[in-house]
Design brief:
Mean pLDDT: 77
Radius of gyration: 18 Å
Number of helices: 2
Largest sheet: 4 strands, mixed
Strand order of the largest sheet: 2-1-4-3
Structural class: alpha+beta
Order of helices and strands: EEEEHHEEEE
Distance between the termini: 54 Å
Helix content: 10-25%
Number of domains: 1
């Protein structure tokens, strides 16, 4: 597996390039020695697919009363699949931190 660069279109007409693991598909253009593949969907559309998963985690924490909740998602990027949750065997898919402050 090598380094793959994936270009995602942004809603404002610009683009963002992210680095992903995997073999590059058809080369659209290059940056240095790494080929850049264009994603099949926009960055916003790819990221929007994560909202239901994040909401499910937050909904599962209802009833707890921390002062702060932090949710980290392990993400991987794919030109064809968009943004996907990282494999649980290699990286943390979800990391939840709950913080309570002592009452004074």
């Amino acid at each position: 597996m090598g380094r793959q660069l994936i270009e995602y279109a942004l809603a404002d007409g610009q683009s963002i390039v992210v680095e992903a693991e995997g073999d590059a598909g058809p080369v659209q253009r290059g940056r240095g020695d790494a080929p850049v593949e264009r994603a099949a969907e926009s960055f916003e559309a790819a990221v929007a697919k994560l909202k239901p998963a994040a909401a499910a985690v937050i909904d599962g924490l209802k009833g707890l009363t921390p002062e702060e909740i932090t949710l980290e998602l392990g993400l991987k990027f794919s030109a064809k699949a968009g943004v996907v949750l990282a494999s649980a065997d290699s990286e943390a898919t979800f990391k939840v931190t709950l913080k309570w402050k002592p009452k004074v």
